[in-house]
């Protein structure tokens, strides 16, 4: 396949890439950029395409991988830790830093009391889920529908959130 034939085939298939790009990015401009970047990669890596294979699938794969790579770059950039809160400890002597385990004890006592105050029908599935049981396993052990298990765990979480609202960070 000549370079001209390859370019023409890629250009013809480009129109079918746009709806998929739109589905991936959920933004018109980002979708256009994704299709353009896919086309650029396809044309610059023409020698990697094997004649007789599915060109459309090859282009979709390039586009999907490009989208994933761009997404990962954005996530990596936006997940930087703000170290300004920790600068105060930079020049301090470690002997002056203490930990107050009493606070943690009070918190755990409050959590345990809140769990104990849950009704038995909510506490049992919640604790089973907490220790690692899956919804289906809880439903089988308690012989109740899986929807009931999910509902009871949801209600237990809501009641615990209400009982422990004093510990909320944004409060």
From TrEMBL:
Domain RNA polymerase sigma factor 70 region 4 type: 110-160
Gene3D superfamilies: 1.10.1740.10, Winged helix-like DNA-binding domain superfamily/Winged helix DNA-binding domain
SUPFAM superfamilies registered for this protein in UniProt: Sigma2 domain of RNA polymerase sigma factors, Sigma3 and sigma4 domains of RNA polymerase sigma factors
A Pfam entry, by short name: Sigma70_r2
Domain RNA polymerase sigma-70 region: 9-72
CDD domains from the UniProt entry: Sigma70_r4
UniProt record, GO biological process: DNA-templated transcription initiation
InterPro entries: RNA_pol_sigma-70-like, RNA_pol_sigma-70_dom, RNA_pol_sigma70_r2, RNA_pol_sigma70_r4_t2, RNA_pol_sigma_r2, RNA_pol_sigma_r3/r4-like, WH-like_DNA-bd_sf
A molecular function (GO) term: DNA binding
Record keywords: Sigma factor, Transcription, Transcription regulation
Family statement: Belongs to the sigma-70 factor family. ECF subfamily.
NCBIfam families the UniProt entry points to: sigma70-ECF (TIGR02937)
Stated name of the protein: RNA polymerase sigma-70 factor, ECF subfamily
Provenance organism: Pontibacter ummariensis
